[in-house]
């Protein structure tokens, strides 16, 4: 089950963390490699960091404004869902 | 045998195609069509592609009768194009490349058009007119790289036609340009039969506007292409890109070519319009000479010049220094020259 947490940090920026478990480390690693290459749109005032530890994909955002954070998180979740659907639809086949 | 799958989704078409050594094995495609008077926006286009892409991928494999194990390389459009749709497609391409353990190749969309045009028509060393909703360029291949000899300084000709279509609310199905052309054709026959009647009434119809727009804009394209041909000493023209489907443009270009003793090459709507197989074909060219894209370099880019950073270096075009199959390997280009 994914978990998330949001707060304001010491310099008043908004912070949001998302942790997504995958069935295996391999799948978490594939997901992060697919998601990392495209930069955040240059709206400024937002950073996003992706990392993998064992089978958990972690994403951490810092943002100046709630609106920008919301757009970025929403967009990331769409992308993540697409990657996961792709793995579900075409990942099992590799076992043949 | 080399089999490449290509993913394309830089504008409102999502297409996935499979090519094996110059043979197109499958090329399914879906088009995001908006109501008359409306253009297509990045986020909605991305949503359309997201909804269709896995189905289209399944179709591409099934129609080709292939399994993922049969694929040698995964090609995708790195750019240019609209950001959100490009990302959607790149995500799936990167994911399947990793799932299937295949190398990834990031392709320039414009090069995809050109390489597919050359494959389908057999054009030898043409002056290329690349005209679509997003691009308007005159290109030739010289000294081992693509060179832009002319291009629009404001908007692409297809974009111009599309925006005009929105103003007078022409349907976007199957595409605005196609419907402008149909109205133009209708106008042509009316003019043949009742020219003086229309002229004396002094009234302007939508058909009149379509006619005028096409004639004006296409004349400009033909003239620029002719100048490029004179400059390059070229005897062939290849038209690629969605606007290349337009039969009037082909007709006008044909007249110019005939006057110069040159040959005209064009493809039909399967390959003029954005499709996956053209990306697969360009990817095949790149893969053959060992050009692949690391995952960390596979970011998409909305602006991607056809020259000098285009990826397909060392491609064997006849009439250049090396001929195919002679065993030579072309020296890498130096960037920035």
From TrEMBL, chain A:
Which InterPro entries has this protein been placed in? CTAG/Pcc1
Q: Which domain of life is it from?
A: Eukaryota
Q: Which UniProt keywords apply?
A: Cytoplasm, Nucleus, tRNA processing
Pfam families membership: Pcc1
Q: Where in the cell is it found?
A: Cytoplasm; Nucleus
Gene Ontology biological process terms from the UniProt entry: tRNA processing; tRNA threonylcarbamoyladenosine metabolic process
Principal subcellular localization: cytoplasm
Recorded GO cellular component terms are: cytoplasm; EKC/KEOPS complex; nucleus
Subunit info here reads: Component of the EKC/KEOPS complex composed of at least GON7, TP53RK, TPRKB, OSGEP and LAGE3; the whole complex dimerizes.
What's this protein's family per the entry? Belongs to the CTAG/PCC1 family.
What this chain does, per the entry, is described as:
Component of the EKC/KEOPS complex that is required for the formation of a threonylcarbamoyl group on adenosine at position 37 (t(6)A37) in tRNAs that read codons beginning with adenine. The complex is probably involved in the transfer of the threonylcarbamoyl moiety of threonylcarbamoyl-AMP (TC-AMP) to the N6 group of A37. LAGE3 functions as a dimerization module for the complex.
According to UniProt, the name of this protein is: L antigen family member 3
Organism listed in the record: Pygocentrus nattereri
Give me the gene this protein comes from: CREM
TrEMBL record, chain B:
GO BP annotations of the record are: tRNA threonylcarbamoyladenosine modification
Q: Which residues form the Gcp-like domain?
A: 29-280
Q: Which Gene3D superfamilies would you find in this protein's record?
A: 3.30.420.40
The record's Gene Ontology cellular component field reads: cytoplasm; EKC/KEOPS complex; nucleus
| Listed cofactors | a divalent metal cation
Which residues are listed for substrate binding in this entry? 130-134, 162, 177, 181, 246
Catalytic activity reported: L-threonylcarbamoyladenylate + adenosine(37) in tRNA = N(6)-L-threonylcarbamoyladenosine(37) in tRNA + AMP + H(+)
InterPro entries, alphabetized = ATPase_NBD, Gcp-like_dom, KAE1/TsaD, Kae1_archaea_euk, Peptidase_M22_CS
User: Where, if anywhere, are coiled coils annotated?
Assistant: none
- Give the main localization category: cytoplasm
Q: Which residues bind a divalent metal cation?
A: 109, 113, 130, 274
What keywords are assigned to this protein?
A: Acyltransferase, Cytoplasm, Iron, Metal-binding, Nucleus, Transferase, tRNA processing
The entry's free-text remark on the cofactor is: Binds 1 divalent metal cation per subunit.
Q: Where in the cell is it found?
A: Cytoplasm; Nucleus
Signal sequence, start to end: none
A Pfam family that the UniProt record links to this protein? TsaD
Entry's Gene Ontology molecular function annotations: metal ion binding; tRNA N(6)-L-threonylcarbamoyladenine synthase activity
Question: What's its EC?
Answer: 2.3.1.234
Matching HAMAP family, A to Z?
A: Kae1 (MF_01446)
PANTHER family attached here?
TRNA N6-ADENOSINE THREONYLCARBAMOYLTRANSFERASE
Q: What does the sequence similarity comment in the record state about its family? A: Belongs to the KAE1 / TsaD family.
Protein name stated in the entry: N(6)-L-threonylcarbamoyladenine synthase
- Source organism of the structure: Pygocentrus nattereri (Red-bellied piranha)
């Amino acid at each position: 089950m994914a978990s998330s947490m949001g707060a304001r940090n010491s310099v008043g920026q908004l912070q949001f963390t998302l942790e997504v478990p995958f069935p295996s480390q391999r799948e978490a690693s594939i997901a992060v490699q697919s998601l990392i290459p495209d930069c955040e749109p240059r709206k400024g005032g937002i950073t996003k960091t992706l990392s993998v530890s064992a089978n958990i994909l972690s994403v951490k955002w810092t943002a100046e404004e709630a609106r920008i954070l919301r757009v970025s998180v929403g967009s990331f979740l769409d992308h993540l869902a697409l990657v996961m659907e792709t793995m579900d639809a075409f990942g099992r086949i590799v076992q043949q | 045998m080399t089999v490449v799958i290509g993913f394309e989704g830089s504008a409102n078409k999502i297409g996935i195609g499979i090519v094996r050594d110059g043979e197109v094995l499958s090329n399914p495609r879906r088009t995001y069509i908006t109501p008359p008077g409306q253009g297509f926006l990045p986020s909605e286009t991305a949503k359309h592609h997201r909804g269709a892409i896995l189905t289209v991928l399944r179709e591409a494999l099934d129609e080709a009768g292939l399994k993922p194990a049969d694929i040698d390389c995964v090609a995708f459009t790195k750019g240019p194009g609209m950001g959100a749709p490009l990302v959607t497609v790149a995500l799936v391409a990167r994911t399947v490349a990793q799932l299937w353990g295949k190398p990834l190749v990031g392709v320039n969309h414009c090069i995809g058009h050109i390489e597919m045009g050359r494959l389908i028509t057999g054009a030898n060393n043409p002056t290329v007119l690349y005209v679509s909703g997003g691009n308007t360029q005159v290109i030739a291949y010289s000294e081992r790289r693509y060179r832009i000899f002319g291009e629009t300084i404001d908007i692409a000709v297809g974009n111009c036609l599309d925006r005009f279509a929105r103003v007078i609310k022409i349907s976007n199905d199957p595409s605005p340009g196609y419907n402008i052309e149909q109205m133009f054709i209708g106008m042509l026959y009316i003019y043949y039969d009742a020219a003086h009647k229309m002229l004396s009434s002094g009234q302007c119809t939508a058909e009149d506007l379509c006619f005028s727009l096409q004639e004006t804009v296409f004349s400009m394209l033909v003239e620029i292409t002719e100048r490029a041909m004179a400059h390059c000493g070229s005897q062939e023209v290849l038209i690629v890109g969605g606007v290349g489907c337009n039969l009037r443009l082909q007709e006008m270009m044909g007249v110019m070519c005939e006057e110069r003793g040159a040959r005209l090459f064009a493809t039909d709507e399967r390959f003029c319009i954005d499709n996956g197989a053209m990306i697969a074909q360009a990817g095949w060219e790149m893969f053959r000479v060992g050009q692949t894209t690391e995952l960390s370099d596979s970011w998409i880019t909305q602006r991607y010049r056809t020259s000098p950073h285009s990826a397909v270096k060392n491609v064997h075009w006849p009439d250049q220094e090396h001929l195919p199959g002679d065993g030579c390997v072309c020296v890498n280009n130096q960037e920035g020259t």
